[in-house]
């Protein structure tokens, strides 16, 4: 069992914070990433989707997980379980410091996550307090004009990484 924390950052212009539409523990937010087999090292060709409110019984034993998948190359089965309560929103301070914010923890058995895709619906708040909802970051950026703050707002240069957590 290895825990991986999904860490995200972006360039935020006049944006105070960024997070999934329903918060960091949004039960219906889809996390898309590829998985790398722990046995043979094969990286999945397509992204896998993991959602907090979608669970499946564990192949052996009791309990549930958010993903059960077989490696197409060696046939080994692996699981990915989401661990809510560990994420924080990405703030302007974190972004300006060139740091990453933790978004979601994944308990991986037999797999390693790789290459998070910014999809799903996000929300942000401008430095002036204007709220933006239903943001689509799949195109790599978001730009608007904040009437309240009388300035442009922008989210760009999206980056992510998975870090092993002890």
Automatic annotation (TrEMBL):
Signal peptide residues on this chain, from the entry's feature table: none
GO molecular function: zinc ion binding
Top-rank taxon: Eukaryota
Keyword Metal-binding attributed: yes
One protein family per Pfam: CXXC_Zn-b_euk
Metal-binding found in the keyword field: yes
SUPFAM superfamilies hit by this protein: MAL13P1.257-like
Keywords per UniProt: Metal-binding, Zinc
Family listed: Belongs to the UPF0587 family.
Full protein name: CXXC motif containing zinc binding protein
Annotated source species: Manihot esculenta
